[in-house]
Structures are given as structure tokens and as C-alpha cells.
Amino acid sequence: MNRLRNTCLKISLGLLVLFLWLLLPLAADEGMWPYNLVPKDYLAKKYNFKVTDEWLNHLRLASIRFGGASASFVSPDGLVLTNHHVGRGAIQNLSTAERNLIKTGFYARTRDEELKCPGVELWVLQEIEDVTDKVLSAEKPGMSPQEVAAARQKVIAEIEKEASEKTGLRCTVVTLYSGGMYNLYKYKTYNDVRLVFAPEEEIAFFGGDPDNFTYPRYDLDIALFRVYENGQPLKTQHYLKWATTGVKEGDLVFCSGNPGSTGRMLTYDQLLFLRDVSYPFTIANYKRRQALLHEYAKKSPEHERIALNTIFGIENSLKATVGYQSGLLDKDLMAKKLAEEQKIRRAIEANPALAKEYGQAWEEIAQAQKEYASFFKPYMFFERAQAFNTVYFNIARTLVRLATEKDKPNDQRLREFREANLAAVRRSLLSPAPIYDDFEIYKLADSLKQLREELPDLMETRWILGGKSCEEVAKELVTGTKLKDLEIRKKYIEGGLEAIYQSDDPMIKLALLVDPISRGLRQRYEKNVEAVEVKNGTLIARALFKLKGTSIPPDATGTLRLSFGVVKGYVENGRKIPYKTDFAGLYERAKKFNFQPPYSLPERYLQRKSALNLKTPLNFVATVDSIGGNSGSPVVNRKGEFVGVLFDGNIQSLPTRFVYEDKISRSVMVDAQGIIEALIKIYDAKSLADELLGRK
Amino acid sequence: MNRLRNTCLKISLGLLVLFLWLLLPLAADEGMWPYNLVPKDYLAKKYNFKVTDEWLNHLRLASIRFGGASASFVSPDGLVLTNHHVGRGAIQNLSTAERNLIKTGFYARTRDEELKCPGVELWVLQEIEDVTDKVLSAEKPGMSPQEVAAARQKVIAEIEKEASEKTGLRCTVVTLYSGGMYNLYKYKTYNDVRLVFAPEEEIAFFGGDPDNFTYPRYDLDIALFRVYENGQPLKTQHYLKWATTGVKEGDLVFCSGNPGSTGRMLTYDQLLFLRDVSYPFTIANYKRRQALLHEYAKKSPEHERIALNTIFGIENSLKATVGYQSGLLDKDLMAKKLAEEQKIRRAIEANPALAKEYGQAWEEIAQAQKEYASFFKPYMFFERAQAFNTVYFNIARTLVRLATEKDKPNDQRLREFREANLAAVRRSLLSPAPIYDDFEIYKLADSLKQLREELPDLMETRWILGGKSCEEVAKELVTGTKLKDLEIRKKYIEGGLEAIYQSDDPMIKLALLVDPISRGLRQRYEKNVEAVEVKNGTLIARALFKLKGTSIPPDATGTLRLSFGVVKGYVENGRKIPYKTDFAGLYERAKKFNFQPPYSLPERYLQRKSALNLKTPLNFVATVDSIGGNSGSPVVNRKGEFVGVLFDGNIQSLPTRFVYEDKISRSVMVDAQGIIEALIKIYDAKSLADELLGRK
Fold first, then answer.
1. Which of A632, B288, B402, B495 is at a distance of 20 to 30 A from B147, taking alpha carbons?
2. Among partner residues B407, B467, B521, which is closest to A467 by beta-carbon distance?
3. Which of B509, B544, B579 is the last residue of a domain?
């Protein structure tokens, strides 16, 4: 009797907890919302802002996916604004030893001077279609997680192929809520993209790595491109008008971009995996490469020019990952996550029906983490190509896999080689971006060294390295490959598996050698980890749906999202941080560091200082929810006018990868007014400013 | 005018030559004839022998394909007679260190004692169907040789698959006349085969390698097996009755078996390729392995037991190949082949219509030989697995390729993995034949050494061998693999590509490593050599058809053929060689060599000598056309009665691979009477003799 009463009591307590938890308000302005799930009621209620379809569609069609990041149309003539660090690769690829556009900046005074960027492709989201029912209908009772995953992938491949063929658009199914929802995204793509304007890196990335992910900031982190279609500038009605008045504290603003990934719905065990296995590995790896490339860059200015873009990327990722990890190392944050999860689990366990349906989900995910940890290292080194740090390997592997996959039925291919993605794969293979063999040997030699250090006993390691030094092997591979030549790549694309098998290109042979083990590890990951996570993630999401509907935002997935918040300063260690910075602050900070790198300024900033209105805002912060991938996102006011471009988050924003927070976490923008001021006063780019301001 | 007249004159001369050449009679009793092309008129005319369908069908259904060689049913209870050297592998697999059946021989006095032979499969040809039109209809105008080959392969795969499914038989399309004719062969297969009787190797292979391919011979090269079906001896009406009277000189006899391959229709350039590229390589390789394995066998009696079967095979092949090569090195033979070819070519060139259709065929084949020579060595080492001389590699490669191929559409698979062959592939993979690791390491180490000597600069060679000794590598591979375990093999068969990719078995990894280069070389061979040879071989065959119909026999293709000739002695270097030998001769020859190996005799032959009728014929020769693969072929008289079993050809018969000859070239048989005499007098096997003689 006692035991029974106890149980009853537990259940009542559990339901009570569940009930209370449901009553908790949605955490503030949390959420990077898919365009079809924007919380209109919340915005209406909290901000008295009515989201119309017209407003939403216009912003969506003016938003651009630029590589893994974001951008927007800012003129009716196809002008595109993004961050300098988003366009950095494209700018680097237009540079040579004689013409270092990263260092000098660039401005095309006429359209004829605009520089075509090889390999750059922009995507604009045309339509979202809910295909959840179609995808979920693939699941039949009694299927294993692996079978469910395979069945869903088959349906997804069919949907993508059919939609791509029907619309001519790039169609891809996006998995939301860990598989609780599937949406088909249809993109228009643009391949003729030309550089219009880039400032000097000194001002675009003022403060360098030390100031990255901090605030206050003073960066003109912008670049302007133009989309061409049929050799003419793209005419578009969907572009953002420039705001005539600047933002002020308390203003509601919106951010439209492509946040890469968040982990707010991850279970506690998934967080532990990141904290204890994945991030330590990644961080150590970034640090190693950072040190390595700085050594390389020291050799000469040309070495520095070649390495700098890669160093930039590594340091940016390193700082971000360290920031994410800081959240996971924060005992309070983890305790909060655990408590939240236990609350849900207890509520579910207290109800036998719910317990039966959802109770096992967390434990199964926990088991999958253990399995993942058991092969994480070889998975990173082989399938994720950690061991082969050279673009040549990426090209060779893509050629090898393209040849293998394209002969298979669409739904049985590796995801990245599905019909809907093939055109993009081919274009990426034919990118004429420059490759510097000396640099490739240097990187590859070290990653091979890492392979030898970490997985010395694997047969593949011993085969590749034999008794030789990693430098020797790297040199032989890089000097032996002919993959720099686009015509050769074309021949492999056309020749298919036969050309691949008959190849004596050492890089192709290396890609072939490691393909079986890589695929084996990928299968283990996809079947024993990913499929289990998706299956159980779906269960957890369904449980949450039952409790909350779609009032909780899905985790970021690298696809277009709308977030919102207010322009707002914050208090850090008792010190008040104002919401904006200005040009005056820029000069002060440079002076404080004696104008020494990374606080040096381009010559013209010193010459033109007196021409500037030093009070013009340069950067500002807002509480809009964002994460890596949002770089380049336009930020607009209630009228949908461009008020700034997101380029960073402060260091306190990084742990929001896992838990939303808005007291001290901020997104950092370049202010629209600062952009115009610089273009006119510093760069003599009045016609460009006029185009932005709509003054022709 | 002069030039024109000249041309006319040439044409007339050409046609005249062609005409004369057509009048030449068909060369004597030449031909290993497919059962549907037996030259009945010729037999009727020359031998006054009427071939009835009943006679032919009975002989066909009593004939058996045993591995790559031949056998026949010799009792209504499924008794099968073949050569000891054909059944050698099966007998070896039943042997252990304690029970060496190769050495001691074996006789099952009761059915219970008959020993089941793992992995042995016998085929009996049920039906031949002409599918030439179907296959040739795949060719469309304007196709390249490669496209024609692919189109034909597709049709062939469909035909095989459909017929296999329809009949439940093992159906395979045989290419005759270099692609001039395609026939569908349908086999019934038997997998429960048990050893009934084997003599001691000393008498089965009396004279050993020195006497192999010579005559006079004194060998009891026989072994008897029994086919079971559903656990019971197979009841069959199609078996050969034992001849009650022996053969005598001049008797017409027939041989029904599976000659492997001949090259009588090869062009002169193909012969040059064999003479200058292929045979020198093969002979050197056999010699190397012969010496190597003799070294191994010397280590201990158990080493000898393990190695002897392989040594036997190598020495047999070596002697045969040296014999074939002796033909190609014979200037007269080559001059004759060249003259014949030039005669045809001149005739064709003299006629513009014929010249246009067939004129290029020889030159294109010549070019293909040059191409083949350019990659022959790596092709042998990788695709033909010369570099990996261990059964483990064969198993691993078959597992890897089975997994890869079975996911492909039937017609796109490597030929040996087509639907019709899959059951046999699976059975071969699960053969429990014993494997001796020490022996495998020994063989593999040397073949790796060969690889290092011959192709040291290939990336694959360096990967596999690294800085290590070949012995180390071989040891690591063989001791590391788990493929000896049949359960493990089963798991790979069932697990498919996923199990293969996730495998950490070093032999599987090796097979994966060399698969791309091997497939690349195979593609080069199939497309640039084989397809060109088939296309142009077909053209040449068509030209010959126009001139001669099917009165010329097609080259051997390892399929069932009927040949005929007369029992006949010959003159060698002025010395008359009688058509038969007897037991008396056996003892004389043994004595001449002091009964020392390989002229030693089993103990019981010394003890029972007095019981024997020493005049009983032991071996005899006839002019029947044969080649390797005919071993074990039954030889019958006009009544279709069994008079002997073919087990060899004399050394002069080897060049008939390329040119038929019947003056001194002879096939060598064990005489039916000698078999009975030995069974009764030496082996106390009266009940077995009674079964053969039909006296129950």
C-alpha cells in the first residue's frame, strides 16, 4: 500500500511539475525562426508589431545565402551586401602576389571594373513547402532506426529530385526539430557574382583576433558584390531600402540570415559528448593549425598573403568553439540543462502512456553517444578528412565519390551527391580558385603527422606513410597530382569511374585508398549515431509538440531564419556597455594600441579623419538571437529598412548555442550610417552610396 | 590505263587464290566440335559412321564438367570416372597430416565409407540453344567496339538471367568463333560428390613431371567419385557402358570433354603477342614458383604433403605452356600461320567490297596487341592477382567484389558476378577446403617480392610494402586475416558492402586497396583489347563463314566438345611408337630407374605383380584432337562404349594449340581394360569393377 501510494503521489507530483512547466512563458525573444513559423502573435502582443505576408516575403526574397553565411540585396540593380569576412575567400581568390585585394581593398568605379568571382554561388529562398507527412509516412511499424532513416532518406531524395525537375530550382529538404518536421526549401541560384567594393582588411577586421567576438567593436566588416544575369546586372524589386534614420536604444529590429547550427534541443548526454569528446578534439586541432599557419605566414609577405585567409577562418572557428565550450564548462548552465531535461523526463515517466512512447528516447541517445565516442577519432581523420588537409584531397575525393555515386539510384547516394545537388558539386569542382602547392604541402604534411601521432596502428596510416617522412609523402602527393588543371578535373568528371580507376594521379589514388574506411566510418555514424539521434530526437520533439506546439523554435540548420530583438546595451562586470560605437571610438582604440597591428588603420583613415563626422555610429548591438552563419545577415527596422549588417556576437553570446540568454548576450552589427559615411568620406564612393540610398 | 589494268589483274589473281584456297580440304580429323555442330557428313563419308541424335544425346548427358576439366558417368548409380589429377584437389582436401590420401590412395568398400568432397561441383550440359541473332541484334550502326561489347554483354546477361530463372539450370552464353556465334548452354549442377576410389599417386602419376606430356606412358591416372542427390546415389540412365572388347589400331574413337582453349583462329599478331609477351612472362613465373615450392616441400614430409598439389598444378601448366611456346618458336609453324593469314587477307583485299568490310580487322587486332603489351605486366600483377599468391586474397577479393557487384544491375556487373553465376560464387566462398597459413605466408611473401622487383614504382606497391620486408607483410596479412573461418565469410557475404567497408580484416583491406587499379586495368583490357579482338574476330569469322560455312571448328572455350580420331601409333625420330603400353612395360620402366621416384611403385604393385596379366593394355594413344581441360574425358568406341579415359597428350600435341596436326600429335588414354585389371588384381576392388562392368 505504501509503495502504491508513493507511486500515486509521484505521478501527481510529476503531472503538477509538467503543468507548471507548461505555464512558463517562452523565454523572451528566443528563436531563429523559419519563415513559415514566425511567431506573429508573440510579436503582435509583445511589440505591437503586425507581421504581414508582404513584409515577410519581401524580406525573405531580399535575403541571400552566401556560402555558409548570409547577405542581402540592397539595390534594384542586384547589389549585394555582406561582411568582408564572408566575402573574404572570393576576394582572396581575386588576389595575387602583385595585387593583394585583401590588404588594399577594392572599389570598382564603373561596372566594367567589377571583378567576376570564380566559384561563388548565391541562393535565394523562393518557397517553403511542408513535406512532413510525406516523409514521416515512409516509416512503417517495426522498422529499426536504421531502416527508418533509410526509408526517410529515400522519400526525401524523391521529393528533392521531383521538385528540382519540376521547378528548375535547387530543392532541398530541411530536417527541423530533429526530424519532427520536414520542409522542402526551393532556392533560385546565381553564379555570376562580381566584386564591387571591399575595404582594407585593417578596417574590416580592426582589432583582429583579439577583438573578434568582443564588444565594443569598431569594424567596417562589409563587402559589396553585384549579381549578374545573362551578362547584365540583375534587376530585382526585392531589395532592402536603406533606413533614412538610424536605430536607437529600445528599437525593435529583425535579422534575416542563415544561422548554421545550434544545440538547444540536444539532450544532456549529447552536450556531454560535445564537452568531453568533440570540442576538446576540435579545439586542440584548431590550435595546432593556428600555430602551424602562423609559422608559415612568417616566412615572407607572400607566404602571409597566402595563409592569411585560412588563418582567419581557423581563428574565427577556434574562438567560437572555445566560446561554445565555455558554456558547457559552465556548471550552472549544465545544471540548468540537466534540470530542464529531468523535469520533462519525470513528467513523461509519471504517465505510463507517455513513458511507453517517449521514455526510452534519452537513454537511447545516451547509448549512441558512447558508440560515437568509440570511433570519433578515425571518423574525424578519415571521413571528415582531418588527416588530409589540402584542397587537392577534397577535389580528389569529390571526383572519386561523384563517379561512384552518380551511377547509383538517387535515393541510395550519399546525400551530397543527390540529383538536386549535382550541379553545385560540379561547379565547385570546377572552381578556378588559385591553389598554392607550397602551402598545400605544408598543411598536408602536418595533418599526416597528426594522423601518424593519433592513429599509428591503422593499416591505412601505415600504407600512406610507409617508412617515409610526412613531408616526403605530402610533397610527392601534391607535386604529383595534376588536379590543379581544370581541364583534367573536367576529364575526370566526364570519364566517371573508368577514368578514376585508370588514373595514376596520386591524389586520386589516395582518395580511393581511404574511401572504404571512410565510408565504413560514415555508415557507422549514420546508422548507429545519427539515425538513433534522429529517431529519438523526433520522439522528444513530438513529446514537446504535444506539450507546447511549435511555440518553441527549432534549432538552427544553416537555412534562412528570422530572429528579432531590441537595440540595447548591457552591463559587463558592473561596467555599462553602450549600444553603439562611433568613428571617434575607432581612432581612440587605434591610438591606445599605438596604431600597431591588429589596431593599425589604413593610411586613408588617417588622412581623411578630419572629413569624417566622428559621431557617426559605426557598430551597434541588439538582443537578436544569432549564431555563426548569421554573418552578413541584414538587420532591418519595423519598416523592413536596412539599418545594419550583422558581423559578430559578443563573447557572452557564444554559450547561447545551447541556452538562449538576453541579459548580456548580444549580436554585433555594422551600422548603416557608418557604411555611408565611410563610403563617401573615406572611399570617395559617392555613386555607390547613392545607389544604396536610392539616389540615382 | 596501265594502273587500272594492273588492279584488275590483281583482283583476278586474288580471286583465283581465294578460289584455290577454298578448294583445300578440311584438315583431316581436326576439331573439338560443339555438340550442335558435329560434322556428321564428314564422319559418314570418311568413317562410314552415322551419328544419330540418340547416340549424341546419350554421350552428352553422360559427360561431365569437373572443375575446369572433364569426367563421365560410368554406372547407373551415379559413379563418376575422371583422372586422378583432375580429382587431385578434392582428394588433397580430404587429406590431413595423419591420413594422406594422395599418397596412400583410397577405396570405399561400402557406400558408407564414401567421402564427401567439400566444394566440388559437377555440371552436366542439358541443352544448347542458339542465341546468335539475339546477341548480334544488340549491335547498332556507328557503335564503337567498346559500345558493341557493352551492348552484347547486356543482352547476354539478360538471356542468362531469364533462362536461369525459367529453367532453374545454370545458364551461360558461350562465345564461339570469336563472336561469330553465340550459344546458350544450360547445365544441371551436382554438389554432393563423394570420393569412391583413388589409386596411390605413385601409380596415378608414374614417371612424374619428367614423363608428363610424353609417350609411351604407364599411368593409372584415374579416380572414381559418386554423385548423390538428396542423400542417395544418383540414379541415371545416361552413363557409359564399359566396352567388352578393347581398342585396336585403326579403331575410330570419340572423346567427349571440355577442352579449355585453343588459338587456331588467332591472328598472326596475336600469336606474336603470346610468343613475345605473354608466354615468356608466364613461363618465367611458373619456373619461379616451381623452384620456390620445391624448397618449401623439402622442409618436412608435412610441408611436402601441403605443397605437392600446388607443385603438381604448376609443373603441369609449365610443361604445357613450354609446349605451346615451342610451337610458336617453330619457324615453320609460324611461317605456315603467316602464309595462311596472308592468303586470306590478299583474297579479301583483292575484292573492294570484302576489303571494305573485313580488310581492317587484322590491323586493328595488331594495334590492340600493342596496347595490351603496354599494360600487360600490371594487369597480370593486379587484376590477375599475380602479386597476391594466396587463397586468402582470392577469398577477400571475391567477397569485396561480390558486395560491390550484386548491388548493380545484372548487365553492368563483372561477368563472374552475373545472376546466373552467383550461387556458384557463394558456394566457392564457403568451400571448407583446408588452408595452411604457413604455406600461404610463404607463397604470398614471394609473390610480393616479385611485385617489388617488377613494379617497384607503382604507388600501390609502395603502399603495400612500405619499408618492410615482404615476409613481414605477408605474415601480417595472413596471420591477421580471419577469413579461414567460414562463419566470418558468411557474415561478409550477408553483410555486403557495409560489412566490407567496416572490416578491419587486413586481407579485405588489401583487396579493397588494389581493387581500383585492378578494375582500371581490367577495363583497359576489356575495352581496348578484348572488345577490339571480339569485334574484329567476329569480322574475320564472318569472312570465313562466307567462304566455308561452319565446316571449320571453333576454338575451344572450356565447354563440352566432341572430337574423334583413330587409335594409332606414330614414328618419332625414326623410332616406331606403338599405340599401346601394358603392365609389363610399367614394371620394365620402373626397373630401369631402379624404382626410384618418380619411378617408384606402390608396395602392392610389387606384391601383386604375379597376379596381373602383364599383357593387359594400360595406356593407349589416338589422333583425337584435345587440349588441357580434356583431362578426364571419356573415350568411347562407335557403340558409345567406354574404352578409356584421356589423361594427357604427347609433347608433340602441344603446338596443336595453334595448328592441328595428326602425324605425330597424340592424345593419351588410360585403357578401360587396364583399369579393370588393376581394380581386381591390385586393389581387391571386385565390387567396384563389377559396377563398372554392369555385373551387379
1. B402
2. B467
3. B544
